[in-house]
């Protein structure tokens, strides 16, 4: 059993030593492919995040417009109420 194990270790070591250049080229190609895929996925995540932020910004812009419109309406209503309630100068004299 020990002989078989040692024979396997030696055979494996010899195969790696003989085919080291082929193995290295294969690993380099696979690493480049993995890096390319990772970069593509990172880009996709960035584009998705950009679209999400753009959508949120549109919603916030719309909410800001609605708040500004509401503020203007409240101000106009309060000024009208103030003019109605405030005594005229003729009544003060």
Structure, described:
This protein has 93 residues and is mainly α. It has a domain at 20-83. Helix content is 94%, strand content 0%. It is built from three helices and no strands. It is rod-shaped, with a radius of gyration of 38 Å. The relative contact order is 0.04. The mean pLDDT is 91.
Name a few traits of the molecule.
single chain, 93 residues, mainly alpha, 3 helices
Task: Write a brief caption for the model.
The protein is an all-alpha fold and 93 residues long. It is 94% helix and 0% strand.
Give, in order, the helices and strands.
Answer: HHH
Helix content class = over 70%
Query: How confident is the prediction overall: mean pLDDT?
Result: 91
Estimated structural class: mainly alpha
The biggest beta sheet reads: none
Low-pLDDT stretches are none
Distance between the termini: 121 Å
What fraction strand?
Answer: under 5%
Backbone CA Rg: 38 Å
Structure summary, number of beta strands: 0
The gross shape turns out to be rod-shaped
- DSSP helix count? 3
Topology of this protein?
Blueprint lengths: L1 H17 L1 H66 L3 H4 L1
């Amino acid at each position: 059993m020990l002989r078989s194990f040692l024979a396997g270790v030696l055979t494996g070591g010899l195969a790696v030593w003989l085919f080291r250049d082929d193995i290295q080229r294969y690993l380099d190609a696979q690493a480049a492919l993995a890096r390319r895929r990772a970069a593509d996925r990172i880009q996709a995540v960035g584009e998705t995040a950009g679209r999400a932020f753009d959508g949120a910004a549109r919603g916030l812009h719309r909410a800001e417009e609605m708040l500004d419109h509401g503020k203007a309406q409240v101000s106009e209503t309060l000024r009208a109420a103030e003019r109605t309630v405030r005594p005229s100068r003729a009544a003060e004299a």
